[in-house]
Amino acid sequence: MVWGILGALDAEVALIRDKMDIAETTEMFGTTYYKGTVYGQQVVLVCCGVGKVNAAVCAATAVSKFGAECIVNVGIAGAMRPGLKIMDVVISEQVAFHDQDRIMLDYYPKCEFFQADEALRTLCLTACAEIPALEHRVHTGLIISGDQFINDAAVKKQLNERYAPAATEMEGAAIGHAAFMFGVPFLVIRTMSDAADDDADESYDNFIDDAAASSAGIILKMLELSK
Known about the structure:
It is a single chain. 37% of the residues lie in helices and 31% in strands. With 227 residues, it is an alpha/beta fold. Strands 5-9-8-6-10 form a 5-stranded mixed barrel, surrounded by 5 helices. α2 (52-64) packs parallel to α5 (172-182) and α3 (118-129) crosses α6. The radius of gyration is 16 Å and the shape is globular. The N and C termini lie close together (11 Å).
């Protein structure tokens, strides 16, 4: 299987890139696609940039041009579910857009929720179980996405009332949507960098590097287990 791995920020893909045996680089859409191997697994890696359009374009290109047969999105997110802590991990069961009008559900693909791949999620949970630092810190659930950094407790409350999500970020649902259109499995892996509240900006700045490295470490363990 050819793995497509996407992160919005360079910090989210740097550790993976450092582990790659890079065979080919291609400059497209203001970013670089890397093809190579990690632990013998064929990988297409790209830093897609922030936001839904960037993520969807790069996911589509990873599949259509570079032959990715699954898409895994790694990175950071804001914790939404009560009890979730910074540096906890959320693995997607579903993804959804929190900023689309419901009238869009009348049109293709008529999906509010995109289902993540069960086999990838099972592998991810197995990988997390082999990382001691993640003991009792791994959760599954709905991840919501929108072109908005959630740093307001009132907005967080509204989104929790509408969706009861585990986490919020800016790319996962777009990647899930693109994967659905191409008929390839996907998974979103997010480590919490903040609590999507009034203190989110400061927390994000303090934990972005550690949280990004955590998610990258999980996909690296998945690739190692897939040898």
